[in-house]
Design a protein that fits this description.
28% helix, 8-stranded mixed β-sheet, two-stranded antiparallel sheet, 184 residues, alpha+beta, globular, single chain
């Protein structure tokens, strides 16, 4: 079981488990077309955000193999929820994980996604003893690709037309990092 018992603090951020009272801020992010553009979902209705939040809050900072450990990203100085970051425990046997993140457009371009993702990579490699963590993105999502590259992840694959999302075939890129390559 992956478990975050205390909020994770970085220089500017606080990462903590989802709470039901995060709905307004979470829905503000998930309802935006520019946020959902490269996601398999959305833009989400308030009811869809509430349903997703209910599942995430029920996990309370834990994940079993095959599940996502989700944390909200809050500004440390104000507590404002600006996104979320997650780590999937893909395989216990092979010590594999997968990274994901979503950030409000109001807070993009300031290094917050990189800072939050780096903290989750540290959790994955140092706390949970994962050996390899990968992340994927729509090949057109240059902002997400830049985050993965800033994290020191290497591009391992470019799958052409591999996913049918929102009525079109999309390319996906996969980046990865080994525990021996991670530079906190």
């Amino acid at each position: 079981m992956l478990r975050v018992t205390q909020p994770v603090k970085t220089d500017r951020l606080l990462l903590r488990p989802f709470q039901l009272d995060d709905l307004d801020a979470l829905h503000d992010i998930e309802s935006r077309p520019e946020v959902a553009l490269y996601e398999y979902w959305g833009p989400r209705t308030r009811e869809e955000s509430a349903e997703a939040l209910s599942r995430k809050a029920a996990q309370n900072g834990t994940a079993a193999e095959g599940e996502w450990l989700g944390l909200v990203i809050c500004l440390a100085d104000t507590g404002e929820l600006i996104g979320d970051v997650s780590l999937k425990w893909a395989s216990e046997k092979w010590r594999q994980g997968e990274l994901g993140y979503v950030l409000s457009p109001d807070h993009q371009g300031r290094g917050y996604a990189t800072e939050a993702a780096k903290a989750v990579l540290r959790l994955g490699f140092h706390e949970f003893a994962l050996r390899r963590i990968q992340a994927g993105a729509d090949a057109r999502n240059t902002a997400s690709i830049k985050v993965m590259e800033r994290l020191g992840m290497r591009r391992e694959a470019h799958f052409r037309g591999c996913a049918f999302v929102k009525d079109e075939w999309c390319d996906e890129v996969i980046y990865a990092l080994l525990d021996t390559e991670f530079r906190p």
